[in-house]
Design brief:
4 helices; single chain; mainly beta
Length: 279
């Protein structure tokens, strides 16, 4: 059985118990539910701070942890998209109350009290999930006692109407491999964050997205919201003539003419592999 290692919690020495009979490992363990308590938690390929960033987990995200080492790294699987890797254990705790709201602004702050003049104790990215226990003046008070500007939040079930418009809000954000916030993101991270804001389930990497999202379309009939795929890259069409994508050429989220991008990327030997239409 061919299991994608990116979303399969299995190593030669350790694997999730639910994979019994599907993988070979020295030990099978039941996972422990945890919750991300930092604004952004890095998910890395190895248990060290200089290891490659695979993706990021946002505040409130649930994670199943299978091992915590002596150096303070926890190996587990994200509930949202199934990605597997190492997280700083200090950024995790046992789950609290279920989330009621999500961050609808590109970024907001958590204050220790009901005043914007107080030093923030954390910053939360778009899509972070929080449990609101009550309202106090213009603030939503979280279950852990933080104060978040209520106007930056939306009910958990709320959805943005246009994921292209969400992506455009990230214009100029620096390119960051594995990133998925306004501090930095990569091409598939931009797509995932934008679609998730609209209530559309989305996998993490561009090859996964190409396999899972939408139906075939064509460059000739390009429409706003179509996803254009190359090997290892994805862009979002804004219409027939322009597109937006996080890319290493601009080192940022950029809007550029489709023809110009096709020519530039094609000159490197990479051709479009497909166009997918979500609706």
């Amino acid at each position: 059985m061919n299991l994608d290692p990116r979303v399969t919690p299995a190593r030669p020495d350790l694997a999730a118990a639910h994979l019994r009979g599907k993988v070979k490992a020295q030990q099978l363990v039941e996972g422990t539910a945890q919750e991300v308590i930092a604004g952004i938690a890095p998910l890395r390929s190895e248990p060290r701070p200089d290891a490659p960033l695979l993706t990021e987990a946002l505040f409130g995200e649930r994670v199943t942890i299978y091992e915590t080492d002596e150096e303070g790294w926890a190996w587990g699987q994200l509930k949202s998209d199934g990605y597997v890797g190492w997280l700083p254990a200090a950024m995790l705790l046992a789950p609290g109350p279920p989330p009621t709201h999500k961050v609808a602004a590109l970024r907001t702050f958590v204050f220790p009290g009901p005043s914007i003049k107080l030093p923030p104790i954390d910053a939360l990215p778009l899509g972070a999930q929080i449990a609101v226990s009550r309202q106090q003046e213009s603030f939503a008070v979280t279950a852990s006692g933080g104060f978040v500007p209520a106007q930056h939040l939306a009910p958990l079930a709320a959805s943005e109407p246009d994921f292209v418009a969400v992506a455009e809000r990230f214009l100029g954000v620096p390119y960051l491999w594995g990133g998925k916030s306004s501090l930095g993101l990569d091409c598939s991270g931009l797509v995932q964050v934008a679609l998730t804001a609209c209530g559309i389930t989305c996998t993490r990497d561009s090859d996964m997205q190409e396999s899972a999202l939408g139906k075939p379309a064509s460059l000739a009939g390009l429409q706003s919201g179509d996803l254009i795929f190359w090997k290892g890259h994805v862009a979002i069409a804004r219409g027939r003539n322009s597109m937006i994508h996080a890319n290493a050429f601009h080192m940022a989220v950029a809007i550029e003419p489709v023809a110009e991008a096709l020519g530039r990327i094609g000159a490197t030997g990479s051709q479009v592999t497909s166009v997918r239409r979500l609706k």
